Amino acid sequence: MGRLVKAGERVRIAVDMDEVIADSHGRHVELYRRDFGVHLAEEQLLGRRFSEAVHEDHRLAVKQYAHELDFFSSLSVIPDSQDVLARLYERHDVFIASAAMEFPTSFVPKFEWLREYFPFFSWENVVFCGDKSIIAADYLIDDIPRNLERFGGEGILFSAPHNRKETRFRRVQGWAEIAELFLD
Amino acid sequence: MGRLVKAGERVRIAVDMDEVIADSHGRHVELYRRDFGVHLAEEQLLGRRFSEAVHEDHRLAVKQYAHELDFFSSLSVIPDSQDVLARLYERHDVFIASAAMEFPTSFVPKFEWLREYFPFFSWENVVFCGDKSIIAADYLIDDIPRNLERFGGEGILFSAPHNRKETRFRRVQGWAEIAELFLD
Question: Which domains are assigned to chain A?
Answer without folding.
Answer: 12-23+76-182 (3.40.50.1000), 25-73 (no CATH)
